[in-house]
Amino acid sequence: MGRLCRVSGSIACLAGLLGLAGCVPHDHGWAASYKEAQDPKIAVVMPAEAPSIAQEFFESSVTAGHLGIDVIDKVGTPVIAVAAGQVDASFYEPAYGNRVVIDHGPVTGGVSTYTVYKHLEKRLVQPGEQVERGQQIATLGVTGALGGGIPHLHFEVWRGTGKRRHPVDPQRSWANGPGRVTCFDPAAPAETTGFRLTYPVGCR
């Protein structure tokens, strides 16, 4: 295991199994740097009220990758849908614990976008349910062997059709633009074209 540190609310840094060396200096408003080997790297702007990102997306053909972002917060924190869609899966499995997958439907070219939420404490939706942006779908947890004992949400974005899907860096798709982490705001107008997401954990 790597070093551990204390931050507000007894949230520790992700280390060891989560592959992060060092500490998360703030529990809100901070984002980890990309690994050196990741290309491209996106400049990230974090709102001060957003729970921090402890690990960024990393895709590799030669080593184990990290195909999403890790958002740290306390166990039981609401996890919310990043966009409207239909629940594609909701289940428990040993490595990643409680998981929810949402199908957001096809965009340009008929390619669908899916979002994946892992290490959940509780799942609050079932396959086939329709969800809206900002709707609570789960609570943040520490389930699964790869959770590392650290309360966090592992969040992924996938695109494709059927079983042929590929991971996409979530930082590419925020509602405010690439790298501009966007907190959910019920008063904000929904986008009418393409796929844009808001943060999967509520901002304070």
UniProtKB/TrEMBL annotation:
This is Peptidase M23-like protein. InterPro entries: Cell_wall_metabolism_enzyme, Dup_hybrid_motif, M23ase_b-sheet_dom. One of its GO terms (molecular function) is metalloendopeptidase activity. Signal peptide: none annotated. CDD domains: M23_peptidase. The lineage of its organism: Bacteria, Pseudomonadati, Pseudomonadota, Alphaproteobacteria, Hyphomicrobiales. Residues 65-169 form the M23ase beta-sheet core domain.
